[in-house]
């Protein structure tokens, strides 16, 4: 803050100190309202978020994606809704992407890899896709 006052230019002071202007103004506001106490580190943000999808639901999404590899996220959302689980198609896509099951091909390859060492019966849905 002293450098900004000395230079008469907040942007230049931030450039010299390697700080973005938004952070400068946040630190300045905290100092003005709370003094040196406001400059102390804030407590860490909790790792669990209230909007986090429960692990059981994530596992169910993965299982459904492998049971029905040709289904898209909207169809998986509808299946989950029938089970009483409300998850948006966008959330389902994010979960599948994180599990490397984001595309139909990824799901088929994962299914093939999981069953490579044993014979399986092909469902009509799978036969139609092949």
3D structure, described in words:
- The chain has 130 residues and is an all-alpha fold.
- It folds into two domains: 2-39, no CATH class; 55-129.
- It is built from eight helices and no strands.
- The N and C termini lie far apart (66 Å).
Total DSSP E strands: 0
Over all CA atoms, what is the radius of gyration?
A: 26 Å
Q: How would you sum up the major sheet?
A: none
- What structural category characterises the helix and strand content? mainly alpha
Distance between the termini: 66 Å
- Quaternary arrangement of the chains shown? single chain
Mean pLDDT: 87
Overall geometry: elongated
SSE succession: HHHHHHHH
Unreliable sequence segments = none
- The total tally of domains equals 2
Annotation field: number of helices: 8
């Amino acid at each position: 803050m002293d450098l900004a006052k000395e230079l008469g230019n907040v942007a230049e002071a931030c450039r010299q100190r390697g700080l973005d202007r938004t952070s400068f103004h946040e630190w300045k506001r905290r100092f003005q309202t709370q003094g040196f106490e406001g400059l102390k580190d804030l407590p860490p943000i909790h790792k669990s978020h209230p909007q986090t999808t429960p692990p059981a639901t994530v596992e169910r999404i993965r299982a459904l994606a492998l049971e029905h590899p040709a289904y898209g996220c909207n169809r998986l959302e509808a299946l989950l809704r029938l089970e009483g689980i409300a998850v948006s198609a966008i959330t389902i896509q994010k979960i599948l992407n994180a599990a490397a099951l984001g595309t139909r091909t990824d799901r088929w390859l994962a299914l093939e890899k999981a069953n490579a060492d044993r014979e399986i019966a092909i469902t009509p849905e799978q036969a139609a896709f092949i």
